[in-house]
Amino acid sequence: VSRQLKEEIRRGFARLEDPLAGLLAMLESSSDWKGKGHSLGYCITTELQLWIKAHPAVLQSGTKLKKLQARALGMLSQCPANLLDPLISIYQLHTADRNYLLEHVSHLYLQGNYKEAAILSIKLKLQPDQDVEKMCTPLLLQDKANLVEDYVAEYPELQRKLLQTLDTWCDPSFNIRDITRLYQGLSRYKPEKFNRRVLSKLVFRLLEKFNVDSALCPNVINQRHLRTLNYLFYKRFVEKTMTEENWADHIQSTVGENRWLQGHLVQSLLRHCDAHAVARWAQHCRVPPEMLPPAMAEELQKLHIQDRVEEVTKADNYEASKKKDYYQLPIPRENIHFLQTWEETLQCWEKVLQPGQVVGVDMEWKPSFGMVGKPRVALLQLALKDEVFLLDLPRLLEQAEAEGEKEKLSHFIQMLYSDAAITKLGYGMSGDLSSLAATCSALKDAEKQMQGVVDLLAVDKQKVNGLSPEHSHKERGVRQPEKGLSLLVQHVLGKPLDKTEQLSNWEKRPLREEQILYAASDAYCLLEIYERLCKDPESFDLGSDLTDSLVGKQSKKPRSKKQLNKQEAPSPSGKECQGPRTEPSRPPAPIYPQEFSVVCDNMLQGLGRYLRCLGVDVRLLDNEDDHRKAAEIARQEGRVILTSGLPYQTLRSQVGEGRCFSVNCSEKAKEQALQVLKHFNVQVSPSDIFSRCQ
Fold first, then answer.
1. Pfam families recorded for this chain (predicted)?
2. Which pLDDT score, from 0 to 100, does residue 179 have?
């Protein structure tokens, strides 16, 4: 708003006998204030709010204020959201009679204005005097879960009541139609968004957000455990990819002493096992005998007489002879070190934190099977060329805390990730770091500070032609196709990873030998993949774009996170790998916005709109569009691609040199736009602003 307009508005207030009544009269007769954005009505209202602070004498009280408050209240349910706070402040609605306010909101609710009633309740802090189920039910039916979250955000008691209500609706015996029937004429009703699965996800999100004990929602927790139980039976008896020991661990921790789940366990066992096996597993999981069919009593008696553990099902997993079909660690077993003390760990860090070192990094945690909260890392694997270190994080954190040096571990990990002279190899490192931050809160900013990182997940976004996966599956007779890191290992090194231990309980100690070998292999294979790709990228059909990101001389200058996709690093041997290079180019010649044409990848619509305001020729992808559509448009129309994150690697290989630019997705649209304009030397003049149709 211009200074001249502000001064004119304030002079207008000074001339009015009653500025507060004058504002209401203006808003009641105005037509433009009902639109979105900063209308003239909004400017006048916010200026009055500021003007009152300098002229407190205009504030009303008594009967006159009550009349103004009644008029203002009537306006609140119709006005734009940005006018709510200024009007509530100007007319001191927080001081109005609470029963009168509740009555007004109730009237809105009865008229079917559920959203408006909820927003006004939040603004006036009326929630403690309202029925949380009554207020939130129609909002959930209209798929307004975010508004429901806001409604209970500041009231722990209401959070618990809401969660208990949602959990009741998730009881299998509860008929959800009993709720929906009451709101049959509801506008914008979305029945597909109101079912047990959607409600269950909402409950888990709210439990985590509000840090509420999950015991408050037994129905949702039981249903999630039941899905886990079914998944475990599928992995063991249908897919046949889980060992008996892993399966037994997870079954026991999932079912526990829960009678309802024990009943479902028995039903599943009866479908998949013979009588002897059912009796054995029922005994193993402490299922009460009375829950078993009568025919099982005799089998249980036999087990008691034998008083020994027998093998229940034949081992369906691969035999030792098939080990040759999977990736094998090329280092001796004695070079794998399981570290549980700080004395051992300090020796590890001395070797790892060496300039020029290349480290394969991986992490393991107990599968959560969709339960509340992020998983906590149970094992951190660091692989060097000749040895692998497995760090028992829970034990080390416990020791550090007992010694009063709680930050000791996070300090070392931050040193590793922030040192540009050490190359860290990972696969999907963002997820690993997220779990690491959940394990050790001091590491919550580690991802922002990391340098010298190569995430081999980017390779999966490229064409890596190695061993044909279809051919190799047929040869090896593997039941399930490889995916993720295992598929990349198969492509590059010829054999996949043995993922049998992936879903094992990584918190249980001592770790089994199979777990130790699996964990070491997961980290060490990254070194071998990296070295192979650096030495012979052409064999895997890698273009120069990916080669540049993996090879070359390590820069000593610290790099920001947005440059990591393009970071160069040494090979595991410490020698410089040979690959195509380009000399630093001079800044491009200046151009005008009208000459600059771009296509913005999905999720960058804000940047696109900002550039269009400055006169740039912009095309925007929708969020549902495939990233590859940006490359098609760029080639057909001669546009520059603006993208961010992993798609950058793929898209830049599909257009000419310098025709794809990666912006920092964590920055706001304005900062992104400035970054783009500076990189392409676009010169914006005042006449360019709003020169294109918005």
1. DNA_pol_A_exo1 (PF01612), Mut7-C (PF01927)
2. 85
- Comparing CA positions, the residue from 157, 167, 194 lying closest to residue 179 is 194
C-alpha 568/C-alpha 423 separation (Å) is: 9
CATH number of 593-688: 3.40.50
> CA 385, 386, 388 angle in degrees (round to 5)?
90
Enclosing H/E stretch for 152: helix 145-152
What count of other Cβ atoms lies within 10 Å of the Cβ of residue 49?
Answer: 15
d(CA 50, CA 56): 10
SS3 assignment, position 484: helix
Query: What whole-number distance in Å separates Cα of residue 133 and Cα of residue 50?
Result: 38
**Closest by Cα among 479, 480, 497 to 488:** 497
Q: What is the pLDDT of residue 586?
A: 62
What per-residue string of b and e applies to 299-323 under the rule 16 or more CB within 10 Å gives b? bbeebeeeeeeeebbeeeebeeeee
Q: List strands edge to edge, sheet with 377-383.
A: 336-339, 388-391, 377-383, 358-365, 423-426, 453-455
What is the rounded CA–CA span in Å between residue 390 and residue 225?
30
Whose structure tokens read 């490229």? Answer: 462
Q: How many CB atoms lie within 10 A of CB 601?
A: 27
Residue 188 phi/psi, 5-degree rounding, is 60, 30
- Evaluate the CA torsion angle 665, 668, 673, 674 in order and state its sign: negative
- Could you tell me where the beta strands, DSSP code E, fall in 543-681? 597-600, 617-620, 640-643, 660-662
- Residue 581: its pLDDT value, please? 36
Fold of 334-464+483-550: Nucleotidyltransferase; domain 5 (3.30.420)
Which pLDDT score is estimated for 374?
A: 74
Strand 358-365 and strand 423-426: the pairing is parallel
What is the model's pLDDT at position 555? 36
DSSP structural state of residue 322 = G
- Return all residues near 284 (Cβ < 8 A) that are at least 6 apart: 248, 252
Domain chopping of the chain, boundaries: 220-304, 334-464+483-550, 593-688
Query: Which pLDDT score, from 0 to 100, does residue 106 have?
Result: 95
Residue ranges of E strands in 72-231: none
pLDDT (0 to 100) of residue 306: 55
* Mean pLDDT, the chain cut into blocks of 10 residues (694 residues total): 84 88 86 62 88 82 88 85 90 92 94 93 96 94 93 96 95 86 78 83 92 93 93 91 90 91 93 87 86 76 54 42 78 96 93 92 88 82 97 93 86 90 89 84 75 81 47 42 83 90 92 95 95 78 53 38 38 37 59 93 88 94 82 90 79 82 84 92 91 84
Give the position of tokens 């920001």.
560
pTM here is: 0.61
Q: Measure Cα distances from 146 to 61, 115, 153, 518, 532 in Å.
A: 37, 11, 10, 42, 48
d(CA 73, CA 99): 13
**Residues 6 or more apart from 583 whose CB is under 8 A from it?**
none
The total number of residues shown for the chain amounts to 694
Query: How many C-beta neighbours within 10 Å does residue 610 have?
Result: 21
Question: What's the pLDDT at 677?
Answer: 94
Q: CA 369 to CA 224: how far, in whole Å?
A: 8
